[in-house]
Amino acid sequence: MIKHLLKLVWNRKRINFLITVEIFFSFLVVFAVLVFAVYYTDNYRQPLGFNYENVWSVTLDMKSASTPGSRESDKQQQFATIKNMLAGLREFSEVESAAGIWGIPYWSGDWTGDREINGKGKDFEIGFNEATDEVKDVLGLNIVRGRWFGKEDDGATNYRPVVINQLMARTFFGDEDPIGKDISNPKDKERVEQRVIGVVDDFRKGGEFSAKRGYVFHRNDLASEKVSPPRSLIIKVRPGVTAAFEEKILARLQAEARDWSFDIKPLAQMREANFQEYLVPMAAFGLIAGFLLIMVGLGLTGVLWQSVTQRTKEIGLRRAKGATRRRIYRQILGELFIITTIGLLAGVLVVVQFPLLNFMGFANSRVYAISAAISLALVYLLTTICGLYPSRLATRVQPAEALHYE
Amino acid sequence: MLKNYLKIAFKVFLRRKFFTFISLFAISFTLVVLMVAVSFLDHVFGAQPPETKLDRTIGVFHLQMKSPDDNNTWSSPGGYKFFDRYARNLPGVEIMSLLTDTFDGGKVYSYLDGNKIESYLKHTDGEFWRIMEFTFLEGGPFTSDDEKNANFVAVINEATRKKFFDGQSALGRTLEVDGQRFRVVGVVANVPYLRTIPFADIWVPISTMKTQAYKNQLLGGFNALFLARSKADFPMIKEEFQSRLKQVEFDDPKEYNRMIGYAETLFEFMSRPLTNSRQEEPAKVGRALATIFIIMILFMLLPAINLVNINISRIMERASEIGVRKAFGASSWTLVGQFIVENVLLSLIGGAIGFVLSRFVLRAITESGFFPYADFQLNYRVFLYGLAVAVFFGLMSGVYPAWKMSRLHPADALKGVAR
Amino acid sequence: MTSQATASTTSANGAQTSTANMIQLEGIEKVYRTDRIETVALSDINLSVRAGEFISIMGPSGSGKSTLLNVIGLLDVPTGGKVSVNSKPVTSYGDKHLARVRNEEIGFVFQTFHLINDLSVVDNVEIPLLYRKGLSGAERRKLALRALDRVGLHARVHHFPSQLSGGQQQRVAIARAIVGNPRILLADEPTGNLDSQMGDEIMGVLKGLNDDGATIVMVTHDPRQSEKTERIVRLFDGRQVS
Predict the structure, then answer these.
(1) Which of residues 183-242 of B touch A (CB under 8 A)?
(2) Looking at the structure, do residues A187 and A302 belong to the same domain, yes or no?
(3) Mean pLDDT taken over chain C
(4) CA angle B136, B140, B144 (to 5 degrees)
(5) Which of C76, C127, C180 sits opposite B324 (nearest CB)?
(6) Does residue A352 sit in the same domain as residue A232?
(7) Which of A284, B42, B95, B306 is the most exposed place for a label (fewest CB within 10 A)?
(8) What is the CATH number of the domain that holds C125?
């Protein structure tokens, strides 16, 4: 039966070729959109590693000539101002805790570096941040091993204490206990020991849709030469505090530094903006892909319909020779299935190259595989739906109709 | 003859409603996507008020400093000191203006009766108002003297006037922004958010900045715009700018000793990520345009194959009609003509539907408020692009089937044999 | 009347001598070539049809009668031999020129009518006139209605073909064939899809047209109908047997 169908498909290759091409491209379109969708969904289901609720951020604009290598005395002045600000903020009854941090969650700015995993020769991109001791409380970081920064780290002069996330610990140390290990870059000429003192959950600064990656917190003690003034303050406010409180915060901060500017925003609001940045383009592309599929589906139905009408004689003949309705139905759908499979095979061959060429390199092979599987299912579903009506039409052909034609 | 073709075409459309619907759906949907994309590009890059002299304007939107060993790079919008000292009096430049990058720390807050008002603030000079042609609803721009004397004056947009003054006349009245008080001297029509160069809610003189630190910065926060006497002077200006970069005296040459940047159009600047061209090399506009073009073609590929498929089906279904027409004296070319007329007509109808739908979609995007002050318009330029695309579609999807059909032998066609 | 027609052995300069010949075929050969197989559909056919003659072509299925009719009607190009229509040697004509000859000199009637279902009766009849220059819409309409009148169908001009009976459809097809006033009428089994009563009616219409001066070539396998023609050409396996 299959051989017979293949022969039919081959003999009508010119007409079938275009359908195959159409299915091939449809598959690619669906796949491209799905890779993003699957990737984002996959990320979204991972734990975030911090709590954004009731956290407000205040981004500081110090308006200074803060070029790298700016004078040390300027920096010490800024540290003093920020310490005063944090102290002032903590005095408010609305504030649970306040901290200073280089990069707030959901902010698009990033600080990254490559680290070679011990002896494996492969670079691993990790994110960095610089945080004061209170960041753990403000962001509700969950310590799974060791501890977070604290006063006891003040005495650390010949090393820098760091807290890493679980992925980082797993990648670099496997099952070993990472506490006390050095994670400084061996390629760094003036390297200072970076001693792991704790491990947190898989903190993802980029938010729900960003990928999990290794992460390192440095301690910002607001004093030493090695650190710079935090870019932002983050404040945990008590539940129920309204936006009106912003004005009070602003007045308090402005009192400490007349010429600075402040950008106050709840993290929840930044999260929303961050979601939009991911979802709006996604929705737009999804919508376009959806319409493309509807269009292809309608076109396919039309083509199949016409092809059945044109083959009335052949179908009538088959009926006259004893083919049942069911067989005719299966024959038409079977042919369609073969054409679809050829188009999809070509599509899969192309898609398999993607991980090898590192095209759409953000996704791992699992995401590729899931996306490809869903795309295959979707296209098969689409072609089957398109084939239903025309094949039903074919079963209505009476054997006698074969005789109407010469 | 044409009248007849049209008459037959309409009859065929009405009798073959399903095929007509599929074709119209494909054409109009494709057009909507293309038109929205084109009008988006036009909205961002097209010459429209206040940037009416865009064809003569180039700017410097990004600079980089490199360390002697090339290991450290500091990239940022340029600094006031750099532009003031090294970019003035370029040959061929009629007017030069400095302005802060609205999206780099330009967001400011005001508190009015306990409500927080968010605005975008741009610091600029008197020349800015001579390069741009803003529509003033009342008052006028501030001047170079205002800039020189650090007068606390502001030009605000219509939306800001509504927020602060309830839409009443704002001339001479003051508003507090980011802890500073400004007197309003002019009100302009809203500038779309996506017009990244002129966009702001409030424009004030550079000298009113909270500190004067900007005067000592080689990098940080500023864009420069150059209005050339004519487009032909661009190469000369670009070249002279490169030589100026070599004259920069660095604060600490051991830390940074090289400055990299380009005088370029906004499109050149924005196209960099598209072509992966690094900051160290000039933008590749040709390649960027080619990339956009290829993306559009790729997008149109699927609808086009779909239409060709549908058209072949439509024509093969009418094999017997073709045979009859040939038997009664239609030449191959006459029939090719008939089918192309049919397709072009169908495309035009699809195009018309596409236009109407595009209007709806653009209206919806405009009203969603996702891009503040956006007003996506189907202007006549976009309209013509769309029309051209529709006809192109009709020809593209009609020529192959028509050619195939014309090779059909009348005797075969009559038998209904279509291979 | 049946006449025992001999294949007219035309001399080499027959084109000049027999000016009265409406259709002249000399040494016609038609070979179909598909990928591997060669099929000889017609072989050395020589035939002359005089103006005003009504002949029929007979033969079993697959004997090449339809192919012969298609060659006469310039719908198919022979692989060898010469075709002249109204003394014009059309063998060398290009597509455009052939189309004009078909349009002006020839009218076709098919077994399965081949009416365009998307067009009304009168629009179907107008088709040959569409490809003729210098006719206004009103003139076309007038000629089409007159042709329908001649075949006895004037009531249903705005119906669509699917709303008509087989006999009525064939009348429409004949009206379409004669609307341009061609001198030659080619009919391919015009009664094949009709019952005998309707078939007789259609034969009557054709006979009437022949009496008015039309040259008619009809393919049929129904001896009852062929007996009504003046001459019978018999084909067997692509060869002329009588």
Answers:
(1) 209-211, 213, 216-220
(2) no
(3) 84
(4) 135
(5) C127
(6) no
(7) A284
(8) 3.40.50.300
